[in-house]
Amino acid sequence: MSPNSNAGPVTERQRYIILDALRGFALLGIAIANFPEFSLWTFLSEEATAAMPTAQVDKVVRWAEYLLVDGKFYTLFSLLFGIGFSIIIGNAVKRGANGFRIFYRRMTVLLVMGLLHLFFLWSGDILALYALMGMLLPLFRNCSNKTLLRWAAFLLMIPIGVDAIVELYSLQPASWFYDKMWYWCGVFGITEDRYAYWLQEQTTYAGMLQFLVQGAFERMTEFIDGNRYFKVLGLFVLGFYIGRNRFYARLEEIRPLLHKVLVVGFVLGLPLSFVYAYSCMAHHPWGLTVHTALYTFSVFPLAFGYVATIALAYLRFGETMLTRFFAAPGRVALSCYIGQTLFGILIFYGVGFGLGAKIGLAWVLLITLAVYLVEVLLAHLRLRFFHFGSLEWIWRMLTYGKYIRLRKK
Q1: Cα–Cα distance between 382 and 51 in angstroms, integer?
Q2: What 8-state DSSP symbol labels residue 144?
Q3: pTM, whole model, 2 decimals?
Q4: CA angle 139, 110, 371 (to 5 degrees)
Q5: Residue 318 lies in a domain
Q6: What count of Cα atoms within 13 Å lies in the side-chain half-sphere of residue 174?
Q7: pLDDT tens-digit series, residues 7-26
Q8: Residue 7 is assigned to a structural domain of this protein
Q9: Number of domains in the chain
Q10: What single DSSP character describes residue 407?
Q11: 405 inside domain
């Protein structure tokens, strides 16, 4: 018998709708966070954005995004990834399969998907980093609960110390990637004054691909300067702790804990998020270290507060229409995530409708909400006839090394 013959993906009866709803909610926030970059608005100069008809409204929208969205939803998505790791291992062990072999195969497939996404579609990919950091999670499998929490806290806090050293000694840890980015810009003729308009002006995929080459190095610069690997791994470890203790299946039992997380998350995270938003809008007036500390003590607590709020609402009202609304895209999250990239290319790049760098952030937000609604409708329609999204289906078959029926009877 094959070592994977007893292995397989989570069935519909084994799913917990609260996890799917949280994942679907995270996808909405991720879309709101990413579409300013898809629209090329993020790359525009202050003079260019100030000249737009919606400039004043755009400032309010941008401030609100820093306050309520920035970092919070990728935090939620990362937590859910760690929870998913614990579920994969737990199910594999129950079935007598080699859980870690399955897990590493799953991460390898995700890494390939992430790299394809990064190099051929969008420079803002997060999947490749998720896969690489996910491969480290088995190192924590024998840790006690207290040790897991200590590791999570250490990994989430360490960026403050790293940035303090960087600021104190004027270091530039990402300089090699930054220089390579501008080297490839020079090769393709992407100048600083045309950087924000390049993708909107290119009407062929070849021109878009040139931007993606330098964009991969820009993404590495962002990961290093933002200490993203520490943050992601810390959230994975915390998610693994949550999943191992099956908190998602014991919501009534942990209700008091959820109330505490909600109160602390909003009492600490929301006021500091106001200060964090000001720091972002004012280009870090108190320096890098203070800005990173503001991020740490505002983004993470408020994100945890979001999770507690949704969990308590689920306990209070049960499975509602709103729960099912978010759960459908949450079940096909990978397809929706890549789908957002395809929508962004179609709407904003020159190979599509070419709206990039032409409209203000307020319009971008409205387009984002419309795209998300379309994805929700497509997800509900898809799941009426199929068990998985297309990419989820491919991911599962490559993971388990066998054919998995897609269409429902």
Answers
A1: 42
A2: -
A3: 0.94
A4: 125
A5: yes
A6: 18
A7: 555 444 446 999 999 999 99
A8: no
A9: 1
A10: B
A11: no
